[in-house]
Specification:
By secondary structure, the protein is mainly alpha-helical. The protein contains twelve helices and no strands. Helix 1 packs antiparallel against helix 2. The longest helix has about 35 residues. The relative contact order is 0.10.
């Protein structure tokens, strides 16, 4: 920021922004109020982003998220948006408060039984098969193209088939998740195992290291950044796959089942409640895998602060 600049460092732009708010308030006071809150929160975040204090990495996105919720609430209330089109955040929170048992049962059915089980099975099998492919050039040339083909198949085409094969309970959802995450993690693991230099491999041969010793001591640690990239992307795919699979057949519980039935009943607050639970669960799942990555690959340059 230039010396002698205004406190926000953006004075011409901010003057224009507040002038636009004033004009909007003259045309429609509701629009002016919404824009004023947005501009004020943006200004606060602009100031905080330029400061250095403990917790800045959490405070700035928290203010941004709260601002979006406030704007959502203001827009719905000020413009009298019907709940069947877009419920207010307070209505969604009220639905969550009174439907805790239903939401918890749906969470266990979809996330714990379907998404998490399929994620562990699919990712574990992908790493094991990647090691076999690394040992066999035949599998590398024959299986990977087939894997790319299967990974490109649309979920809305494969999910009904797997539901018919494995039944309507969580097993079919786990199977859908396995198909979605397997080849993603497989490709990343194979690429990671190949990401070692010739000098490093020659050094291991100089020490008379066997294939498995080289794999465990050199190649697998070097592949961890690529493996975890696939694992993190697979966290979101796992939850999406389990929810979408429930649209094609499910017992009377589960996030996908609840969303489809609530839409038919025009209970949009329940739909958004399930979406909120899925968003929190998916974010926590991603964060847990990212935390494990930081613990396992602490030595990697990308993990250094």
């Amino acid at each position: 920021m230039r010396a002698g600049a205004a406190p926000l460092g953006l004075s011409p732009g901010w003057l224009g922004a507040f002038a636009g708010v004033a004009v909007a308030a003259v045309v429609d006071w509701r629009l002016g109020a919404v824009l004023a809150v947005w501009i004020g929160a943006w200004a606060a975040n602009a100031v905080l982003s330029g400061l250095s204090f403990p917790g800045r990495r959490l405070v700035v996105p928290a203010i941004f998220g709260v601002t979006l919720l406030v704007l959502w609430q203001m827009t719905v209330r000020l413009y009298d948006v019907p709940g069947v089109i877009l419920p207010a955040p307070t209505d969604i929170a009220a639905r969550i408060a009174v439907s805790g048992d239903i939401l918890w049962g749906d969470f266990v059915q979809t996330f714990v039984k379907g998404a998490l089980t399929g994620y562990v099975m699919g990712c574990g099998a992908a790493v094991a098969v990647a090691i076999l492919i690394d040992r066999s050039p035949f599998l590398q040339r024959g299986l990977l193209p087939v894997g790319n083909f299967v990974a490109a198949l649309p979920i809305i085409g494969t999910a009904p088939i797997l539901v018919m094969w494995f039944g309507f309970d969580w097993q079919s959802k786990a199977a859908v998740v396995v198909v979605m995450v397997f080849f993603l993690v497989l490709v990343n693991t194979v690429a990671g195992l190949a990401d070692t230099g010739a000098m490093q491999r020659d050094l291991m041969r100089t020490y008379a290291a066997s294939y498995w010793q080289t794999l465990w001591k050199l190649r697998l640690p070097a592949a961890m950044p690529m493996i975890f990239n696939g694992l993190k992307i697979a966290t979101t795919l796992a939850l999406i796959g389990a929810i979408v699979a429930e649209f094609f057949g499910s017992p009377i519980r589960g996030m996908g089942f609840r969303i489809s039935t609530a839409v038919g009943q025009l209970a949009l607050d329940m739909v958004w409640a399930e979406i909120a639970v899925a968003a929190v669960a998916g974010s926590a799942f991603y964060g847990a895998v990212a935390a494990i990555q930081r613990a396992v690959t602490f030595w990697h340059p990308s993990m250094r602060r």
